[in-house]
Amino acid sequence: MKYAKITMVYLGGLLTGLALILYPSVGPILTDTGSEGFGFSSGQFGNLFIPQTVFAIISALSSPFLAKVFGIKKILLFGANALLVSMLLLYFSHFLILQKTEAWMLLLVGTTFLGTGFGMVITGLNPIAFALFPTNKVASVAALHFFLGLGTAGAPLLLGLVQKGGSWFNLPLVVAGALLLFVVLVMFLSFEKNKALLSPKGLKVPLGLWVFVAIVTLYGVCEGTFGSFGSVFLKSQGLNVAQASLGLALFWAGLAFGRILFSLVSLKLNLNWFYMVSLIVVGILLYLIPSIKGAGLNIATMALSGFFMSSIFPRSVSWATETFKDNAVMASGLMVASLQFGTGISTNFLGIVSKTQSFALLFKIIAGVAIIAFVLIIFASKKFPQDNTT
Q1: What burial letters (b/e) apply to 96-126, b meaning 16+ CB within 10 Å?
Q2: Which of 32, 50, 130, 239 is the most buried (most CB within 10 A)?
Q3: Alpha-carbon distance 14 to 10, whole Å?
Q4: In a 3-state reduction of DSSP, which class is residue 355?
Q5: Do 87 and 175 contact (CB within 8 A), yes or no?
Q6: Which residues have a Cβ under 8 Å from the Cβ of 22 and sit 6 or more positions away?
Q7: Greater confidence, 266 or 170?
């Protein structure tokens, strides 16, 4: 049973990552005005992700209370089915390529299901992963986010392979099939009731948990800066489209590689120091990258930024979960919602302000956000002492 649950957790992380990035990955197809594209404007494409962010936050925040009523298993099933529906809607959209309005509305519904599914599945998987290996909870949560990152890094690469044959729409269909298998696996598993998988009565959030909410929100602003505008920024640095895409892919790859390395090394060594200093390094990189010249150095800095950001979210989740172990699902839900909120802030802020300000200035402003998050981590470490097994 435990091995099946381990498979379920990490397969769920991988498939959620794949589903999450497929919609933005097909951006070139959705905005292509040629015969093989949908012809959406950049504004229409950007608006597609508003319901994804909103519903990811809503589902992540509501999941702890729904889990108390219906159980964690039903939360996972509902979330996985929502992801499955989002993939099917992306697949069926290619039949409406000539009906621009209908296709846009279909995809808007698709991102709504995508946000809902992401919020529920990750909120449910975090505390389950935390409980898988009691002797090293850091590694088990970090491994979940490695597979999530592997999915986000792998989706653009897989899409590039199938797109060459003009059959990009087959990939969401394949992911939908894999999600169906995930649903079947969850159906056959049982989840024991315990305090860690339930939320307390009422809606009161422990006061100290807001510190972690602030840390993850500020981290989300930094991740969203690289993840949403990394390729656009690199193009403004003089890189071509292929180089900018490579830089973005290596950012996500650095994030995924760092998480699995962090997970493995933390089995033997205390890496709290790495987590503590990572945001200082990220702040320095954000400040310096606008001044970096040359494609190779810019791409390498993107990969390095992803690597140093890799431990922050999973470590914050495991730390918050251990500190508020009687509110594990609530802590997980707030962490997922905070990440989405932070990335949403940076995406909208940079999108609006970049019309009048240079990316060089904006990246330096976000560097200040990273430093503020570092200060909050120092504060939290004094108030809530860490342990390498948490």
Answers
A1: bbeeeeebbebbbebbbbbbbbbbbbbbbbb
A2: 130
A3: 6
A4: coil
A5: yes
A6: 87, 90, 155, 159, 171, 172, 175
A7: 170
